[in-house]
Write a structure and sequence with these properties.
Elements (H helix, E strand, L loop, with lengths): L26 H18 L2 H9 L3 H17 L11 H19 L3 E3 L10 E5 L7 H13 L6 E5 L9 H7 L3 E2 L2 H9 L3 E4 L4 H4 L16 H9 L3 E7 L9 E2 L1 H7 L5 E2 L19 E4 L16 H25 L6
Parallel strand pairs: 1-9, 2-5, 2-6, 3-4, 3-5
Antiparallel strand pairs: 6-9, 7-8
Length: 335
């Protein structure tokens, strides 16, 4: 979902977001109250003992929290920022759905989380792989769940994400935005944790034979944004994603017809139909490296192409070297 392309100034803008559904002043709250009373009454009555056996002790508090959440969604009593980020929905729904995949299926091991500052802007730069960009979503879960301050990762995503029906709305609600200079600059200056995957589709769509070999990082637009905002850059190395969907071929003709960067052929897809879309249960490691400071440079240093190139190369080499180290340490793809 978050394959980032090279930034181009002025090419993309923040999309206006409406923050609440169009309920009338009376209809929304009245409906929410009736629904909450009905569900609460049922659980407090004859269904109470059954609910205790089914959900365990403390279900009342969880149910109350759920009903309160539902009421806020119905009445529109919640906030989104100018990018469309819905913090409550992300924490209560999106991350809750992704967490079992990260903790139980991929068994993600997180290292170096202390390298992400407790506050202030920071740019996370990671390798991209896996045919389907699950690595970006797992990084979002890892940062929120393992960081002491439960920080949210704001991903810079490719244009394709925002033209797909349904995906666009979910991405905006989850805090993602277009991979462009304006959005990156605004988020970093606001003190957000911003994530970028500079390899883009070249990274997630590369053949399995090229696994863990970083593709081109572009012209360093992410470094220029960090320099202007004077925030640290944290290299992020992800091992395990490459093997979830081993890409052994690309149906290029079909990809052109569908307007997609590629249509993957894997050992299981399309041969097993829908079952082929199930990722392999590989063991993942996400390691955050030591921050690379940018505040020693003046803001105008972002216009120095040699400095930008050198920092871009430093970030890329750091990630590549760490990937090799993690691969040497890995006992097995699946354990």
């Amino acid at each position: 979902m978050s394959a980032a392309r090279e930034y181009v100034t002025g090419e993309a803008k923040v999309i206006p977001i409406e923050s609440a559904p169009s309920w009338s002043e009376d209809t929304g709250p009245a409906l929410a109250d009736r629904l909450a009373d009905a569900v609460g009454g049922a659980l407090a009555g004859r269904l109470g003992p059954a609910a205790t056996r089914l959900f365990g002790k403390g279900w009342e508090d969880r149910a109350a929290g759920g009903l309160s959440f539902l009421r806020r969604r119905i009445t529109g009593d919640y906030e989104v920022d100018e990018f469309g980020f819905d913090r409550e929905l992300t924490e209560a729904v999106f991350l809750s759905l992704l967490r079992p995949l990260a903790d139980k299926y991929f068994r993600v091991e997180v290292r170096g989380i202390e390298n992400i500052p407790a506050e202030g802007g920071v740019l996370i730069v990671a390798n991209h792989s896996g045919t389907i960009p699950l690595d970006a979503l797992m990084t979002q879960v890892a940062i929120h769940d393992h960081h002491p301050q439960r920080r949210h990762l704001r991903m810079l995503a490719a244009d394709l994400v925002f033209v797909l029906p349904g995906v666009n709305e979910v991405a905006r609600k989850a805090g993602h935005t277009l991979a462009c200079n304006e959005d990156a600059q605004a988020l970093l200056e606001r003190g957000e944790v911003v994530g970028v995957w500079p390899e883009g589709f070249k990274g997630i769509g590369k053949p399995f034979a090229d696994r863990y070999k970083l593709q081109r990082f572009g012209r360093g637009g992410f470094v220029a944004s960090a320099l202007r905002a004077r925030v640290p850059i944290v290299p992020c190395s992800i091992v395990g994603a490459e093997e979830t969907y081993p890409m052994i071929g690309n149906a290029k003709t079909l990809a052109r017809l569908l307007g997609l960067p590629y249509v993957p052929i894997t050992p299981t897809f399309p041969w097993l139909g829908p079952l082929g879309a199930i990722p392999l249960p590989t063991k993942w490691t996400i390691q955050f490296g030591e921050p690379i400071a940018t505040d020693s440079h003046p803001p105008e240093a972002a216009d120095d192409p040699m400095l930008v190139f050198d920092l871009t190369d430093e970030v890329r080499e750091t990630i590549q070297h760490t990937l090799y180290q993690l691969l040497v340490q890995r006992r097995s793809v699946f354990f």
